Amino acid sequence: MPTSDAVMKRGLGGLVCMESLSTEYLFMIGGNGSIPTKYQSQYQYIQLGNGRICTNEQNLLNLSTRQWIIPTISGQCCPPTAAFAIQKITNNKAVMFGGSVPSDDDRSDRSVNIVYTCQLESDTTIHWESVKGPVVPASVQWPVERRHHAITSIISDSPTLVMIGGEGNDGQLVNDSWLLNTSQYQWSKIVLPEFVTGRQDHCLSSIMMSPDCVWLVVVVGRGTREWKDVGRGYKEPFSEYITDPNITMLIELGKNSTIL
């Protein structure tokens, strides 16, 4: 795969496949990484206290020509963000939720709970919209801030997203699960077993068995973060990987399921 100095080397970002004019692209967004070789003027780059750079840089890889494109952006683009979840809902549109953004002093980061949509309008333009800010009425169900969570889609007349787990601003597991209706962008909380939701850095996918039955597949992840003494008065965060028998979980969602 060809590389380009115009593309910042980074991790903890997002990657989805999109289509425009019958051409497929890989869309890469955000993340933390090393100092970029080239700064793109339309994006933001913020250096954190650990020396890493948090960005909202966006790149398109044309899967036919294997060429990288630096797209222009319009609308309400997300700030520099890492450890979020992003999921495609149509051929050219995706939904992004949560993640960590630089704090006001730019030295550390904090989790957020904002929904964004991004749409590939052409082979060079991405349009962004902020669906709703972090402050919502108490009567509206809305997930708390989180990062390192996972999202997948349930294909139906109106694509619905399922979100599980993650880590909150207090460094502890969020330990919940939600459905997001992408036609009206309304959240509803669902109840899943704690051994399913109590994880971060995990993978989540769905298998459509019938219009009324979907299986969720939850794989690996990490448990609760703990601080361990590494000597000389310093402590570092550490979390154990999920182990047997909970490494891979199958969960049924359906009209006749006790989960819903």
TrEMBL record:
InterPro entries: Kelch-typ_b-propeller (IPR015915). It comes from the Eukaryota. Keywords: Kelch repeat, Repeat. This is Uncharacterized protein. It comes from Amphimedon queenslandica.
